[in-house]
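Troubleshooting log. The previous structure file for this entry was overwritten by mistake, so regenerating from the original sequence record. Sequence copied from the archived sheet and checked twice against the printout by T.R.
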Amino acid sequence: MREAIRAAGLKSGDTISFHHHLRNGDAVLNIVIAEAAAMGLRDLTVAASSLFAVHAPLVDHIQRGIVSRIYTAYMTGPVADAISSGILRTPVVMQTHGGRARAIESGELHIDVAFIAAPAADDYGNLSGTQGRAACGPLGYAVVDAQYASCVIAVTDQLVAYPCGSIDITQEFVDFVVDVDSIGDPNGILSGTTRPTTDPVGLEIARQASSVIEASGYLVDDFSFQTGAGGVSLAVAAEVGKSMRRRGVRGSFAAGGVTGYLVDMLEQGLFRNLFDVQCFDLKAVQSYRDDSRHLAMSASMYANPNNRGAVANRLDAMILGAAEIDRNFNVNVTTGSSGNILGGSGGHADTAAGSKLSIVTTRLTARGGPKVVQKVRCITTPGETVDVVVTEFGIAVNPRRGELEHRLRGAGLMLKSIDTLCAEAARLAPVVPSAPADGRIVGVVEYRDGTVIDVLRMVA
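Regenerated output below.
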């Protein structure tokens, strides 16, 4: 690793990037920054597509001045907590997945050296996400890094004979290949519950969300769909699958971070294809390796608002979650009610903007506090791109979508105003007071086009 860093010409003040396909099992970021620290490098900018609890050693590197800036689309764990408390001297930039790809391609975010964890690689730089001990599926978030970084270092623990089969990133983009003992734990890629919820409230929300899709007029042949990996999201997929079978609908594609549940829908003939930017479980990894209908896409192809056409723009229906949603339909998935960073947009804002029907599913309350509120703590996804909110108490339609409200009302769905949902949430749970803030900005929230839509302030 040290030889590769020297050969790449990495110096203090440079920007280095990492992908998150191994999610909470990733070891490469920690290996690289520890080596850079041992070499005396300082003031590095880390442009990681996401950061997880496994990246806790980064906190010490920030305190020691080795890392001074961070760009990311999602973060959780000790790094997120430390940044919320003001450890980083320059505010973190919270991007969307599509916004990150846009920034890199446009030169707004220039990467000096990209470090790409590769489950398998040959000595000429062909990289595969489907071979090796740490197989993780497509390397969609690393593609733009490989294409636009000044130098690319592949890091693998499975060096194979040339040519590497099932190539996800090709050799002309890779400068050096480093063979290490381990790039991480593949079990750490698991995300969400990977099973539909069995909770009665969650199941009712899922049924109502599916009813919204069915009544919207979009559930016809060539229907396209994306959902997350949480229990309610997967339950929505199950209900949508029932509706598709009942109506004899065969969809065009399901997309996003792919779970085994979407793989099941592909295998049952409900969709012709899957578009996959990252795998959320090992069943999805196996499907991507073995099924030619399971297609890879880069983060740019997925959601870049400035390219020639993103897959997000072809979505009929998108199921989204929320930490909070307010009376203007703005959604927060970046902070908790305390103000601490707990995630980030990922593809949330991208798919809300691109899809014909964006549906937020949420309980009215959680952990003793309201989730439908007067004003969100942080705007992650602007309300103008959110069409419907589904709760256990009823369904609210954005007033911008009058024709959709007319359709849903005609189908007999239980419609309520967003103000009514907000009042009911406040009745059921006390309003959580805002955490004290000293006014110092610790983070900047960028929309997918690069405009700043909110800031994060230090939590006492």
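The radius of gyration is 22 Å. Archived copy saved in two places this time.
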